[in-house]
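One record is given unchanged without comment:
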Amino acid sequence: MYTLSMDLSSTKSKQEPQSVVCYEHVLTKMHRGELVSGTLITEKGLANELGISRTPAREALRRLESDGLVVSEPRYGMKVKVLGYTEILELYEAREALEMAAVEICATKIDDIEISELVVLQSEMSEAVSDPARLAILNYAFHKALLNAAKNRYLTMSFESIQNTLLILGPTTLTNSERAEESLNEHDQLIDLLKTRDANGARNLMRKHLSNAKRVRLRQINQRLIDDA
């Protein structure tokens, strides 16, 4: 999701339609905090930025609109959706319900190879703790691996939709060094629970994990409101 090359001449870009590359380009910029809520995006600007025609740019924006990530701004283009406080709480509520259910199922289905993959990702996250951008990529991979281990395609699709919507909120909560360390500790505990196939323990820990993430996110949002006042 976040490993997209920005070079349209890359091998991956040649294999994918330009509209897909354009779509992922916008997602990546959202993830980096370069496109925040309320930012205007135009077909012309996007096409010029990537050196493509306006048709794939238009298709990418329509897909982003369908995903609920941008809204139409008549006579101007598209604007990154602005989530209200209640919507943010609802988003985290949905994420919590989904990932708690997923990790509970995961604990009953995960195999030793999949646990080993989580251990590898966790090790890489520990090494990247001072690099929030890479840490966020690895964190996504860790949570996606949990969903994959649950082996439920509908949970996985819902997870990806929620993760994309979270991009609207701006930079990862892992930019907070205390939260980064706390998150790594929670991941370690979760891996231990999965090794013993403790479904209830894993579910409860996931609730705590996401509640802590929500706490930091709301603090970030409130701080931005203060800074902008």
